[in-house]
Amino acid sequence: MHVLVVHNRYASAQPSGENKVVDQEVALLRGAGHRVEVFERRSDDIAVRSLLGKAAVPLLVPWNPAVRAELAALLRTERPDVVHVHNVFPLLSPAVLAACADAGVPAVATLHNYTQVCPPGTLQRDGRPCTECVGSTPLPAVRHGCYRNSRLATVPLAVSLSVNRRRWWSGVERFFCISAAQRDVLVRSGMPAERLAVKHNFVPDPDARRAGAGEHLLYLGRLAEAKGVRLLMAAWDEIAATGGVGVPLVIAGAGPLEREVTAWAAGRDDVRHVGLLDPAECRKAVARSVAVLAPSTWLEAFGLVVVEAMAAGVPVVAAGHGAFVELVEDGVTGLLHQPGDAASLASRTRRIAAEPDRNREMGQAARRRYEQGFSPAVGLERLVDEYRTAIAGRTESMGGSR
Question: Does CATH number 3.50.50.60 belong to domain 2-202+376-401?
Answer without folding.
Answer: no
